[in-house]
Input
Amino acid sequence: MMQRLHPQATNKPARGSLLGIEHMEAKDILGLLKLARRMNPLKSRPLLRNKRVVLLFYEASTRTRSSFELAAKSLGAITCLVLSSGSSVEKGESLLDTGGTLRAVGADVIVIRHPSAGAPHLIARHLDIPVINAGDGMHEHPSQALLDALTILKHKKSFKGLHATIVGDVYHSRVARSACHLLTKVGVPVTLCGPPEFVPEVASTLAPGLRITRHVEEALRGTDVVLLLRVQKERLAGQKIRVQDYVARYQMTAARLKLARRDAIVMHPGPIIRGLELTSEVADGPQSVIMDEVRNGVPMRMAILARALGKAR
Ligand code: CP
Output
């Protein structure tokens, strides 16, 4: 019988897929975090020996791509990197045909970053292998939210009694969307702060337990976790807000950070733009855990890959 280039949609992503935080249950999130705490990138564990992990990236990435690759290799998997640039995507190959092709060459799991929201979900519904969302448009970035939660747990021991504040361009941020879902599911109330162009009123309906303020000083008072977002300068074109106004009203400075709890941590998914969303003094200061987030990306992604391939033990 002739084999289809890509099977018809199954409507159900394969078990082990990680497409977003929105539909995950808190117990699954906590289980993944527990598993990540047991992962040690410096101590090879061949849990995924001979498994093939394909990294399919349609957008630029440094942290997500390198940490998924190192995570896979730390677990003994074979990795294959496919960048849309230089691949047959440039000749017009569709997303589904690309997915089917990678499955045919032997992929056991596909990690995909794509500029369109929903692209990982689409490919997942057409493949019989797990798909991991490494960031889809303005939708979700689930592995980032999980590594951020792991970072919070490592610094704060527990989510109990914590309050988080997210400052910046929430509207365009898949990181913010996944973080809001995750933090509120584990019982951490979140304050969103920014101008209306970045934090529209409707953002408060994203998850229960979200509050909005336009005043960074108010947002910071008493908070335990400050999550800053990159200002995407390209998104400011045509907006009423100007870079100078944003810096004046929202940039994280050492003086502003003093309003947060003394032991508050400063997070940022990266890449950071020094002098824009934060000063170098804050980025490199004692409360910054930005490099810990990057470091924690490897064990967190080891756990995600192990779960995807049924080796979560
Ligand atoms: N945080 C994040 O997604 O970074 P990269 O774009 O470098 O992967």
Remarks:
- The domain at 26-139+297-308 is CATH 3.40.50.1370 (Rossmann fold).
- The radius of gyration is 20 Å.
- The longest strand covers residues 52-57.
